[in-house]
Design a protein that fits this description.
The chain is mainly beta and 180 residues long. The protein contains one helix and 15 strands, in the order E-E-E-E-E-E-E-E-E-E-E-E-E-E-E-H. It has a six-stranded antiparallel beta barrel with strand order 9-11-12-15-14-13.
């Protein structure tokens, strides 16, 4: 396969024949990552690489909101028939958050599509309660009753979303200053 020679800040990327590299391509607006090996290169008449057929091709999910890993306290109540079941509140912590949802580390799973009332308590902001929907459930360690439940926010005010995004940017700034 022949591709245009990759450039970084206007300078050709230099690899040696046989080196493995990771690439990214966008097809019909959908980004993909892949792994390949450089077989050869030429500068004339155009700078190109000859590469092995790509493998480990993965679609890249591009999120609408920046996501940051952070542990914040969460209270979760299930919504059944449009009623919040308040006598069965589950406490948990976030694994990560964004302006569009959160991933929560909790000791029980919910089915994908389940509606939840999720309250995350943010430092300096306080609690933000949002109707949410379960979109992903993972059990990272099959021998432990810990689940990562991904939720997307269904009914969030722009004020609350803005406060969450500001919190995320402050956290990113702190992490950069600490060199994390």
């Amino acid at each position: 396969m022949v591709i245009a020679m990759p450039m970084s800040k206007g300078i050709p990327v230099i690899l040696q024949r046989g080196e493995v590299f990771f690439g990214r391509v966008v097809t019909d607006g959908v980004p993909f990552e892949f792994t390949s090996t450089l077989l050869g290169k030429q500068l004339q008449p155009l700078p190109v690489w000859t590469i092995a057929i790509p493998y480990n091709i993965k679609k890249i999910q591009q999120r609408a909101f920046v996501r940051i890993d952070t542990m914040l306290p969460v209270k979760i109540a299930e919504i059944v028939d449009d009623k919040v079941i308040e006598d069965q509140i589950v406490t948990a912590v976030t694994k990560d958050i964004s302006g569009g949802g959160a991933q929560i580390a909790v000791n029980r799973p919910w089915q994908i599509g389940t509606k939840l009332m999720v309250t995350v308590t943010y430092p300096e902001i306080g609690p933000i309660t949002v109707k949410s929907e379960v979109v992903r459930v993972q059990q990272p360690q099959p021998d432990r009753m810990i689940f990562w439940v991904g939720v997307k926010y269904l009914g969030i005010s722009e004020k609350d979303r803005s406060n969450i995004i500001k919190f995320i940017f402050r956290k990113q700034l702190e992490q950069r200053r600490k060199g994390l």
